[in-house]
Amino acid sequence: MANKSRRRRQKKRKPRSGHPAGNPAPRPVSIASTQRDQELGSLFAFVDWHREHGVLPDLLFVLAQLQAFFPLYAELSGGAAVTSMDPGLIAEHVELLEERDPDYASFFCAVLFEYMHFLRHTGRWSGTEECHQVLHDVLYHGILNEDFSPAG
Q1: How far is CA 10 from the centre of its chain?
Q2: Maximum distance among all alpha carbons in the chain?
Q3: What CA–CA distance (Å, rounded) separates 144 from 150?
Q4: Are 76 and 120 in contact (CB under 8 A)?
């Protein structure tokens, strides 16, 4: 009889796993981590898009530029998404690059110009139409090493 009681108690018990007080709460996902995941996913999609639509010849250099730019933009913008870049911040950055190395500034603008077109072409651009047009102008003039202010 004792064996039957023990079996009934064992059947009623839930198996213990994880934290003694129950399953632990899921870890919160940081915004920065989510943003990095989105950026990485966007780079994978960019590679496919670039094969068909890209104009810059060396994809590895383009990817290296974008990978270096994403954390820099996050720092400059206070963590804003690269899918809605602020033309004013980009213009300031391009001006600094042009002071140091005009050829590099031109290449940087060409890379970002192509990435911006990728975002728009694939529906990933999350900024306004006006921001897209102003950013387009900033980068276009940056490729040519021409002065351009987003304000006009």
Answers
A1: 52
A2: 93
A3: 16
A4: no
Amino acid type, 63:
L
Cβ–Cβ under 8 Å, residues 73 and 89: yes
Q: Is the Cβ–Cβ distance between 113 and 140 less than 8 Å?
A: yes
Report pLDDT for 13. 57
Burial of 131 (0-12, 13-18, 19+ CB in 10 A): middle
Kindly report the number of other CB atoms within 10 A of residue 86's CB atom: 18
Q: What is the pLDDT of residue 38?
A: 63
The tokens for 109 are: 């603008």
SS3 140: helix
In whole numbers, what is the pLDDT of the chain averaged over residues? 82
Report the distance separating Cα 13 and Cα 71, nearest Å: 50
Report pLDDT digits (tens) over 14-61: 555 554 555 555 555 455 555 565 666 788 899 999 999 988 988 999
